[in-house]
Specification:
alpha/beta; 6 strands
Length: 247
């Protein structure tokens, strides 16, 4: 059994993600193109011989926003459990079961609360700041959002969910040799652009004020893990190979 992994999945494209408007609490549907791209991502990256192996998933954390929940559905993981936001399970779902992972909706991975900047583009925010503050400088990673969340607020909730994840799903398997590990230890987080970039920063023990220099496209997947199989050496996995059978 390999080193436990955490997959971070950003929700698919929306109208606001297309035009750069900051989308925190506003509920928006995925565009048709966004839905197709998430489905394509699922076909390419989800499967027994793919990046995300459903049978290895122990748990799924998903944002309370509908666009994230729809993205999880479209990835095609084959969850046995009912989606928490649906009243019933699809009758045909039993034939498609590929994972026993439980699903939790958590506020801790909701998008950054943009407060007064909700629905605005970065250019509009800078113009507003220049008019009211005399300077157009704005960096969400150090300044946060008036009426919304500060970097300290975001750090607090992300550290909470990361600690929960490591204690529940990674501490025990990483205390064993890789040859003795069994069961499901991978975790999937389905959420949003800024919060997942912040999540990756905190996973690696970096302050948000350092500002991430990496991106996560709408509908994109990132991978986090551990170096040397040690829980105190969390790392960002820049690339991984597909699983293949021995010949």
């Amino acid at each position: 059994m390999g080193t436990p992994r955490v997959f971070i999945a950003r929700h698919g494209e929306t109208e606001w993600s297309l035009n750069g408007r900051h989308t925190g609490t506003t509920e928006l549907s995925l565009t048709e193109n966004g839905q197709r791209r998430v489905q394509a991502t699922g076909r390419a990256l989800v499967g027994d011989d793919r990046l995300i192996v459903p049978a290895k998933l122990a748990y799924i954390y998903v944002s309370p926003r509908e666009r994230a929940q729809k993205t999880l559905e479209l990835l095609g993981l084959g969850c046995r459990v009912k989606y928490p936001w649906k009243d019933t399970r699809e009758p045909s779902a039993d034939a498609e079961v590929r994972t026993e992972a439980k699903i939790e909706i958590t506020q801790d991975i909701r998008e950054w609360d943009y407060g007064d900047y909700e629905g605005l583009t970065s250019a509009q925010i800078r113009a507003q700041r220049k008019e009211t503050l005399g300077s157009e400088h704005w960096d969400i990673w150090s300044d946060g959002c008036p009426g919304g969340e500060s970097p300290v607020d975001v750090t607090e909730r992300l550290d909470r969910v990361i600690a929960n994840m490591r204690e529940r799903f990674h501490k025990d398997p990483l205390s064993q040799s890789s040859k003795k590990r069994s069961g499901q230890h991978d975790v999937l987080v389905v959420a949003h652009g800024h919060i997942l970039r912040a999540f990756a920063m905190r996973w690696a023990g970096k302050s948000l004020s350092e500002g991430p220099t990496f991106l996560l496209e709408a509908g994109g997947i990132g991978t986090l893990s551990y170096e040397h199989d040690k829980i105190d050496e969390p790392a960002i996995l820049l690339g991984g190979g597909f699983i293949v059978g021995h010949v």
